[in-house]
């Protein structure tokens, strides 16, 4: 197989900025939109990297149209990222958390619309774009369902939690891979395999994020911010005084100041808890499931190696 092409994220960014300039006819709105996009550039365009990689399954010919498709994926993820942060209210440093929520929500709506518009303008056959739109709608609606379930904080069993994560995070990962694969004219059987392992990759990424959110020692710590994640749910079911603190905190019986006063004892207990190792192993299990399923694709070993490298970095 030919070498798998790479794409400059700067060109994807330029497409996004051009779409903003063309379609958001207000100087203040454009300035804020550009600011949000440039912030996202610093975080990295990881979703569109997956889109590009799946377009190039045994296809070594670079396509400039991928910059439009990549821009569509990143507009979508930026819009959803804004809404997620506004709903969680746990990250006050991102630019969309600094501006009034009404302004950021309005821009999120604009980015969602630009995502669909730039995808429609991509220079590919109409039947392929139609199929890509179907996967976009399908996966985003699944993610909306998962986000709703997450916001309600209803889950108190591991199985239910993992299913919610698959809906919320796995669906968006699958959205980015399936859209790329569609333009490569991938078969339905191959798309089913891609969707399966992409959802597991989303679970892997969310578990990694949840562990980071639990163990970080700053004001954004998920526990102090009262985020209900799988590791925190498992910790609340442990025995001991610290577990009761967590239970009482989430039931509203004690406040954040109570938890902050006991921070040293609490986090020493967390680091020593078997929950930490268990979630790390669980993440690795989903990582392995992703790799094993990906290897079912009848494609070149070079592509599989590249995809496995991506998975192992999550």
UniProtKB/TrEMBL annotation:
Keywords: Transferase. GO terms for biological process: isoprenoid biosynthetic process. Belongs to the FPP/GGPP synthase family. SUPFAM superfamilies: Terpenoid synthases. The keyword Transmembrane does not apply. GO terms for molecular function: prenyltransferase activity. This is Competence protein ComQ. InterPro entries: ComQ, Isoprenoid_synthase_dom_sf, Polyprenyl_synt. It comes from the Bacteria.
């Amino acid at each position: 197989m030919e070498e798998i092409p790479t794409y400059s994220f700067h060109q994807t960014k330029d497409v996004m900025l051009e779409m903003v300039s063309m379609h958001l006819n207000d100087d203040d709105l454009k300035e804020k939109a550009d600011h949000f996009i440039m912030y996202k550039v610093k975080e990295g365009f990881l979703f569109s990297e997956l889109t590009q990689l799946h377009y190039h399954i045994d296809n070594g010919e670079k396509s400039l149209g991928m910059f439009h498709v990549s821009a569509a994926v990143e507009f979508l993820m930026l819009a959803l990222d804004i809404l997620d942060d506004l709903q969680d209210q746990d990250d006050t440093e991102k630019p969309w958390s600094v501006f009034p929520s009404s302004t950021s929500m309005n821009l999120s709506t604009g980015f969602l619309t630009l995502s669909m518009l730039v995808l429609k303008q991509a220079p590919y056959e109409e039947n392929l774009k139609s199929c890509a739109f179907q996967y976009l709608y399908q996966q985003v609606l699944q993610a909306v369902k998962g986000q709703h379930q997450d916001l309600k904080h209803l889950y108190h069993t591991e199985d239910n939690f993992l299913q919610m994560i698959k809906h919320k995070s796995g669906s968006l990962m699958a959205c980015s891979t399936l859209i790329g694969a569609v333009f490569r004219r991938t078969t339905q059987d191959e798309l089913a395999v891609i969707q399966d392992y992409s959802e597991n990759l989303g679970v892997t990424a969310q578990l990694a994020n949840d562990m980071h959110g639990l163990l970080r020692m700053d004001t954004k710590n998920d526990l102090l911010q009262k985020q209900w994640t799988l590791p925190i749910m498992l910790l609340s079911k442990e025995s001991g005084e610290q577990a009761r603190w967590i239970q009482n905190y989430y039931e509203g019986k004690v406040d954040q100041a109570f938890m902050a006063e006991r921070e040293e004892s609490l986090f020493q207990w967390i680091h020593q808890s078997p929950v930490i190792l268990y979630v790390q192993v669980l993440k690795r299990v989903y990582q392995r499931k992703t790799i094993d399923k990906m290897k079912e694709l009848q494609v070149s070993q070079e592509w599989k190696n590249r995809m496995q490298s991506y998975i192992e970095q999550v």
